[in-house]
Amino acid sequence: MSDCGGVSRDDHTNPAVRRLADWDAAMLDDLAAAHGTPLYVTDLDRVKENCARLRDAFPDAEVRYAVKAHTGRAVLETVRDAGLPAECASAGEVHRALGAEFSGDEIQYTAVHPPAEDLDYVVDAWREHPDLTITVGAADTVERLRERGFDGRLCVRVNPGVGAGHHEKVRTGANAKFGVPYDRAADLVASASDEFDLVGIHAHAGSGISGDDLANHRELVRRMGDLAREVSAAGVELEFVDVGGGFGVPYGEDEPPLDLPAVAEATREAIGDIEATLAVEPGRYVVADAGVLLTRVNTVKETPETVVTGVDAGMTTLLRPAMYDAYHAIRNLSSEHRETVGTTIVGPICESSDVFCENRPLPRPERDDLLAVGNAGAYGYEMASTYNSRPRPAEVALSGANAALVRRRETLTDLTEVESR
Ligand SMILES: Cc1ncc(COP(=O)(O)O)c(C=O)c1O
């Protein structure tokens, strides 16, 4: 089996990673001046490049985009134009995918303990788009679909008993919440195939897989290959075997990128011979390095331990550091050449977890400096909230030489808009 932890080949036209240092500081400065901060900047050309690299690495597989990483309309349209179908985790994501004009056969809905309203919406959508596929992670959900008259394309999500990912909170593969237990999956597939158009089986190990975790990814793929052969021997003809997403991206400045072609080759080897198309559904890999978050310094406070630097983005703007202790590269665009000091960057939220980095060596900050936070394209805006009654930020999308405001900044009035008076 191939080693898939190495550094990827150097391709200057479509490099395996775009680092924060590669972004044009003057352009980002202009965008912050024009649109204010905090501001998400998403480069649609980089989204296209990431889609192209995925398709090149998996030429015989179907590469689907896990929409949850970034659901902005401009991103969805870019991904659709690049030929990737949409994997959706909720009725809201299906609604967005339909709005971005994905066709029914380009939409997979992966139901996770779905509320009744989600099933109602998706089954209604299926009546209009009968090629849409619904993935269920429990026999109970099959029953709930039957009650709604659904008898279309069904996929069974399996709990493969092996998880992977950058943090305990994103490892799904061995978590009982997700999927039908592995040893019950073949029976459910067989019984459901009598009533539904049983098209696939699915599993997802977790998110941000790289390095040592790749062995677990391969084990998951191997188990899915075995299961596919078992159900096919029982007479069920599968169209696809979806082994999930989770391909990691390098958040650290010196971290090597994933060797995607090697991961793809290892995936193909691990699945073995199956009479179905292999499918993968990355989210993060498509959008992470296509996005940066711009934020301005509000306060600089010298303390004996560190220079506490308050910025106008917080955990409500980018949750990953608070939620997963995630590392994001940070660059001071106003001056990269001042003396370096241990800097603790914090947001305006009244929570001690509202911290982007602790005592990191960075150019000495000054009030009004503009900072850029790297790899903010995946699970950035998506996980933003209005906690502490902070309106969500704006987003600009870049395409060629154009920069368009694709999400306006929310206002204080937006915060109370949904309340009855
Ligand atoms: C079922 C499923 N598929 C795909 C993904 C995408 O993972 P990633 O963004 O790490 O590629 C997720 C992420 O949570 C997921 O739950």
Could you explain the architecture of this structure?
- With 421 residues, this protein is of the alpha/beta class.
- The strands form two sheets. Strands 2, 3, 4, 5, 6, 7, 8, 9, 10 and 11 form a ten-stranded parallel β-sheet that branches.
- The longest helix is centred in the middle third of the chain and has 20 residues, at 214-233.
- The protein has two domains: 44-286, Alanine racemase (TIM Barrel, Alpha-Beta Barrel), CATH 3.20.20; 289-412, Lyase, Ornithine Decarboxylase, Chain A, domain 1 (Beta Barrel).
- Helices cover 29% and strands 22% of the residues.
- Helix 2 crosses helix 9 (260-271).
- The model is unreliable at 1-9 (pLDDT under 50).
- The chain has helices spanning 25-35, 44-57, 73-81, 91-99, 116-128, 139-147, 182-192, 214-233, 260-271, 284-287, 320-324, 412-416, and strands at 39-43, 62-63, 65-66, 86-88, 107-110, 133-136, 153-159, 180-181, 197-202, 240-242, 277-280, 291-302, 307-311, 330-332, 340-346, 355-363, 370-373, 394-399, 402-407.
- Bound molecules: pyridoxal-5'-phosphate.
- Residues 66, 68-69, 87, 110, 172, 204, 207-208, 244-247, 281-285 line the site of pyridoxal-5'-phosphate (PLP).
- Pyridoxal-5'-phosphate binds at residues 66, 68-69, 87, 110, 172, 204, 207-208, 244-247, 281-285.
